[in-house]
Amino acid sequence: MAASLAGIKPLLNWLAYCCIALGLVTSVQGAQEWDNFRPKLHYSVQLNWLNDPNGLVFVNGEYHMYYQYHPGSSVPGPKSWAHTISRDFVTWSDLPTALEPDELGDIWSGSSIVDFTNSSGFQTNVDVYPIVAVFTHAGQSQQQSIAYSNDWGRTFTKFAQNPVIPNPGKQDFRDPKVIWYNDESWILVLAAEISIVNNILKQINLYSVGDRVEFYISQDLKNWSLSSDFGADPDQGLKGVWECPDIFPLEFDGETVWVLLVSNGGGGPNGGSNTQYFVGTFDGTTFSSPQIDPLFMDSGVDNYASISFFNEPRGRRVIIGWMTNLMYANDIPTGDWRGQMTMAREVRLAKNSGNALRLRSLVVDEIVEKLVDPNQEISVGITGIAPDTTMYLTDSVPWNNSLMHLNLFIDVGGLCQGCSLSICFLNSKEQEICSGYDHGRERPLFLDRERSGRTDFNPSFSRRLSAIREIPLDGANNILQFEAFLDLVAIEVFFDGGMTPMTSLFYPEEPYTFVEIRHHALGNINSRLSIASGSVFQGMKSMYEV
Ligand SMILES: *[C@@H]1O[C@H](CO)[C@@H](O)[C@H](O)[C@H]1NC(C)=O
Ligand SMILES: *[C@@H]1O[C@H](CO)[C@@H](O)[C@H](O)[C@H]1NC(C)=O
Ligand SMILES: *[C@@H]1O[C@H](CO)[C@@H](O)[C@H](O)[C@H]1NC(C)=O
């Protein structure tokens, strides 16, 4: 939850009223377009405003996703926890709002856990494990509170002695994520800024140490003790207001490696908000990482506030993020609803060609199995693409919904210096989104939405994103793997087996139905580019039609 929005709440409330009035006028013309902007591979809110995913938890056959929700309008305002559930990450069923504001404040981001051992004492029925939600109460200050459910997450009772972690005099103090550590303790990590006084000094550049995360420990989810902090001393990572941390172990080569995710409100490599991560160790008290520079979980722009599920039944680490950027989140041209999530992703560790551990992300199997349609497949043979020519993968896709999955292996080893490969999705209005590889650049991977359609709603939206390439240790430099899931208004690209994901929204005036692969060779007749074996191009089903 962005702190900067809190200070202007009265203004936003006023704007909400004003815009409802305007909405009556524009919705007549805009209805069709707004409906067209609803994604079909991504969860989106039916009406009003959605932001961060909260309280992701699996229990009793159901994945629960709560999320930041403003019931009053499609711009930010007082937040509740909305609720939706899924059994497969594909179809979601919305349930009534789970947590609403009270005298301690609005209900901001947080997590939830299943209390299998009744450590909290909240369990009332031996056959039903309690879900305990841990969240930020945002009132006069930000404080951490809990609420419990004894009906599998449908309804919650707030703990009578909230807050469980009162504000210690900090301006930013929020987004608690709780994990069960070593079968013995609850560990909570939250984002905390320096004290209010130091924050003023920082803003006039008298004090350079910025954001940090803090770790707390508890046996009962009610009584928490501060055990350590990370990020401020020494100064680590990118600082643009830290939010929504998460910490989890991942196995790599028989070793347990800990990963700390920290969303960061601004200053990302492609502008705006981003989710950075640190690879390190955790002993129940202290997280350590030698990393000073940030690494990014996603090299696109539209993946923020990602957190992982508690109790994922297959032992996977599955994450979901809010699919937008704080630069323009409030201006997305979707009318009376605003906000969607990324697809669920599994994250793992892999070594890059420099022998360093990196996160790699892939769309969960369930989505691939249920939505990718092998009956709608266009074969992509082994083909050379001559310099300065375009290969038309389709003149127009034969399926009618414009949802596509590509998994291409492309030999880029013979591209001339400064030459590039672009994979472009287009409509008949010559609007397009292109992604690919610029040979010889320091940040060779790109995703370009400058001509993608409507970009007028915010000056920060139109842009060409670029990223460093992370080649897997066992990968071949010359073969670029390009996997993409194309929704009506969003694309998730996974380069090199998920080593570099790039996620982006776009708003074309009609769906993209043409696909092209372009070889830009700058007149160099010796430049070589070819599609290698194993490449596929397939249609996808809508999540509303399975
Ligand atoms: C959970 O613990 C509380 C407090 O100790 C106790 O009153 C309650 O009976 C326990 N619930 C179950 C189902 O055992
Ligand atoms: C809270 O936990 C601490 C450390 O475990 C313990 O010393 C203290 O007695 C507990 N307080 C309450 C009220 O339970
Ligand atoms: C797309 O095709 C499917 C299957 O043939 C059909 O059920 C559906 O109605 C079509 N949708 C549109 C928008 O034409």
TrEMBL record:
Domain named Glycosyl hydrolase family 32 N-terminal is located at 42-356
Specify whether GTP-binding is a keyword of the entry: no
Example of a GO cellular component annotation carried by this entry: cytoplasm
Q: Which InterPro entries match?
A: ConA-like_dom_sf, Glyco_hydro_32, Glyco_hydro_32_AS, Glyco_hydro_32_C, Glyco_hydro_32_N, Glyco_hydro_beta-prop_sf
May I ask which residue range the UniProt record assigns to the signal sequence? 1-30
> Per the UniProt record, which residue ranges are transmembrane?
none
- One BP annotation, GO: sucrose catabolic process
The protein's name in its UniProt record: Levanase
Species the sequence originates in: Folsomia candida (Springtail)
